[in-house]
Design goal:
Elements: E1 2-5, E2 16-19, E3 29-39, H1 41-48, H2 56-63, E4 76-84, E5 96-100, E6 111-115, E7 120-122, H3 129-133, H4 136-148, E8 156-160, H5 165-176, E9 180-185, H6 190-195, E10 200-203, E11 216-221, H7 228-231, E12 235-243, H8 248-252, H9 254-260, E13 264-266, H10 274-285, E14 293-298, H11 302-310, E15 317-321
Parallel strand pairs: 8-9, 8-11, 9-10, 11-12, 12-13, 14-15
Antiparallel strand pairs: 1-2, 3-4, 3-6, 3-15, 4-5, 5-7
Helix pairs in contact: 4-5
Length: 326
């Protein structure tokens, strides 16, 4: 089968299209023929080792010190089940599904094996494979942080970086949970963020939300520019700062903030679970959640796709197509 392989860390050009062995599903696994995958900020960071402060050594220990342990990137996909292991009962051949491999990666390939009890769910009937491929990363990240942050109906939520993959998901999910949502983005993305359900939109090129006197129950920082020291005055008593892109200094200050303030900092890796994928699928089928697609690139142009994501200007998600989505 064809796969995108990288044998060293570096710029997008380290990615190469190669022939690799097609996987065979174990007894408890399904084999998915990939129709579409994505380029997430996670793929970019693992490929380039461009990570938050203090995590350079840690990411090498996890993903490979001198070269990648897993030579195939990609954490989310959508496709059709081609075969199943003998113990599989939840899925059958021909089922359209979407899946999230998270840090295990491996989705930049024509075929991917996933355990049936893993993060795999039936594709929403009203979404294309291209759209379904982009459900998992942003959606599960936002869900996990809102769960840890104990978001309540009626609370005021600000999403910093509201036009990115996680940000566009966070705006929609916060709105679904009954929050009063404010999105922070650039001038060009204000209309998009408003269309996703944000009742208020702040153009960061013209206004600093930390200086406008408004306060929020929850601040979601998806881009790493709203540290606790900058944001604490914008948090209400009992407010929570959800740091999606946290550096080691952000992590180390969490105990101190908890002991000295009624406010909280919540950070650390998000977890994507099968139940979360099914929840997102249900919202998508109800018309309450839809991944924002910025651009689609064919599999052979994945270097161009990564180069675009490297600019930091993507709106929502960048999709890689392997099978034509009619």
């Amino acid at each position: 089968m064809k796969a995108i392989v990288y044998e060293r860390y570096g710029p997008p050009e380290v990615l190469q299209l190669k022939e690799v062995e097609k996987p065979t599903p174990k007894d408890n696994e399904v084999l998915i023929k990939t129709h579409a995958t994505t380029v997430t900020s996670g793929d970019w960071r693992v490929r380039s080792l461009n990570v938050p402060a203090g995590f350079g050594l840690i990411i090498r220990l996890v993903f490979g010190f001198s070269k990648p342990k897993q030579p195939i990137l990609g954490s989310e996909l959508a496709g059709v089940i081609e075969s199943v292991g003998k113990d599989v009962r939840k899925f059958k051949v021909g089922d359209p599904v979407f899946a999230f491999s998270d840090a295990a990666m491996g989705c930049y390939a024509e075929y991917k094996c996933m355990p049936e009890d893993g993060a795999v769910a039936l594709k929403p009937v009203n979404l294309t494979f291209y759209e379904a491929a982009a459900l998992s990363f942003g959606g599960t990240t936002a869900l996990d942080f809102f769960r840890r942050g104990k978001l309540q109906r009626g609370e005021k939520v600000l999403v910093n970086g509201a036009s990115g993959g996680v940000g566009t998901a966070a705006v929609q999910l916060a709105r679904h949970f009954g929050a009063d949502v404010t999105g922070v983005c650039s001038t060009a993305n204000m209309e998009l963020v408003q269309s996703l359900g944000a009742g208020h939109v702040i153009d960061y090129t013209k206004e600093d939300f930390t200086q406008n006197g408004e306060t929020y129950d929850v601040i979601v920082d998806t881009v790493g520019t709203a540290s606790f020291s900058l944001s604490k005055a914008s948090l209400k008593e009992g407010g929570r700062l959800l740091v999606v892109l946290a550096g080691l200094p952000d992590m180390l200050q969490i105990p101190c903030v908890s002991m000295t303030s009624s406010k909280k900092v919540i950070a650390g890796p998000a977890t994507g679970r099968a139940v979360d994928l099914r929840f997102l699928a249900g919202l998508a089928e109800a018309g309450e959640f839809k991944p924002v697609i910025d651009r689609c690139y064919p599999f052979e142009q994945i270097v161009d796709a990564h180069s675009y994501v490297d600019t930091g200007r993507k709106r929502g998600n960048v999709v890689i197509t392997l099978v034509r989505d009619d």
